[in-house]
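Students often ask why inverse folding is considered easier than folding. One informal answer: many sequences map to the same fold, so there is more than one right answer. In these notes we will look at a single instance of the problem. The structure comes first.
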C-alpha cells in the first residue's frame, strides 16, 4: 500500500506540470542531481550521528518490507528515526534553498547590474531542494503512521 503514497506524489507533480504552459516537457525540470546529493550528504550523517541510521532502515523494513517487530524498543526507535529523517528533510531543504539563493544572487550580480534571466533560472533550481524536502516529508508521513499503528498493535498483544 505504501506504493500508493509514492504514486500520489508522482501524479501530483505530473498534474502540476501538465497544466503548466510548457506541459509535460517541464517534468524534466524537477530533476536536479546536486539537490538530491545534498539530501544524502545531510540526512545520512545526521541519522548516523544520532545512532538512528540502522533504526531508520528497520523502520522502512517494518513498513515496506513487512518485517515483524521484535520489541517495543525497536518500534519506538524506528518511530524516532523516521521523525528525525522527516524533520531533517524539511530543515535541509530550507538550508539548501537558502544557500542556493545566496550563491545564485552572488553569481547573477555583475558590473552591469543583475542578470534577471540567470537569477530566475538559478532561483528555480534553488527551490528544488525545498521541493525535495517536502516530497520526502510527505513520503515519510505514512511510514510514521504505520509504525505508530504497529506500536498500538504491539501494546495490544
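Output (designed amino acids):
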Amino acid at each position: 500500500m505504501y506504493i500508493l503514497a509514492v504514486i500520489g506524489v508522482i501524479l501530483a507533480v505530473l498534474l502540476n506540470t501538465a497544466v503548466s504552459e510548457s506541459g509535460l516537457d517541464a517534468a524534466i525540470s524537477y530533476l536536479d542531481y546536486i539537490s538530491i546529493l545534498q539530501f544524502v550528504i545531510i540526512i545520512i550523517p545526521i541519522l548516523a550521528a544520532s545512532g538512528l541510521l540502522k533504526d531508520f532502515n528497520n523502520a522502512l523494513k517494518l513498513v515496506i518490507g513487512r518485517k515483524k517487530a521484535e520489541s517495543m524498543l525497536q518500534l519506538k526507535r524506528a518511530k524516532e528515526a523516521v521523525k528525525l529523517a522527516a524533520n531533517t528533510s524539511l530543515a535541509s531543504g530550507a538550508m539548501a534553498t537558502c544557500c542556493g539563493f545566496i550563491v545564485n544572487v552572488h553569481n547573477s550580480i555583475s558590473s552591469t547590474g543583475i542578470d534577471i534571466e540567470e537569477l530566475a533560472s538559478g532561483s528555480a533550481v534553488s527551490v528544488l531542494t525545498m521541493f525535495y524536502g517536502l516530497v520526502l516529508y510527505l513520503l515519510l508521513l505514512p511510514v510514521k503512521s504505520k509504525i505508530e499503528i504497529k506500536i498500538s498493535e504491539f501494546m495490544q498483544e
